[in-house]
Amino acid sequence: MEPEQERPEDQMEEEDRGAEPHTCVTEPHVMEEDEEDEAYCVDGYPSELFRALKDFRDASLLTDLTLSTADGASLQVHAAVLAAVSSHLRHRLRERTEDSSRIHICLGPEVDAVGLAAVVEFAYAGVVSALDPDTVQRVEAAAGTLGACRVVELCRRPGRGEGEPEKPGDRQKEEQEVTLRAIEKMRSDKVGCDVVLEAIGGSLHGE
């Protein structure tokens, strides 16, 4: 049997790399002289992350914020995710004391169950699936009260609120990326971080 032919190193590296990714994570390894970091990449990382967070929310895992409306609705969410789209909630998180691990906010009559659910959906999915002439004003009112400017902009976009459902696509991915960057910024500023992972040599604040 003929010995297996070795592939050139450049060819192996190109094949292993695959298609150009969206988000990259560098895996640490022992470095040889003149050797560069090898990046292992995952395409669609933001959408997978927010899908997992939604599953956590549906199961009430690690939720630390309860939002209640005057019409009796109540939603448990992750404060950092909602604060990433809501300036009002970001302000509340900045004022939160270390002793207060959970937040309960009762919203005024201008925010109803439909509007609140739409803002929450946008925070986790980057899209509002049900905007029509019957809901667009309620969604915009809730978004305006919460300081969710991107949702307000979505409601005012030409063609929205006219019966056309929001379709997932490039814009949804962009919105999720913006939300993820906002969460990362809050973590770096230690806003909404109520978990500290400690190890020899330092500590890491998490949501």
TrEMBL record:
Signal peptide: none
Start and end residues of each stretch annotated as Disordered: 1-37
Feature: compositional bias, Basic and acidic residues: 1-10
Residue stretches making up the BTB domain: 63-132
InterPro entries: BTB/POZ_dom (IPR000210), SKP1/BTB/POZ_sf (IPR011333)
Official protein name in the record: (spotted green pufferfish) hypothetical protein
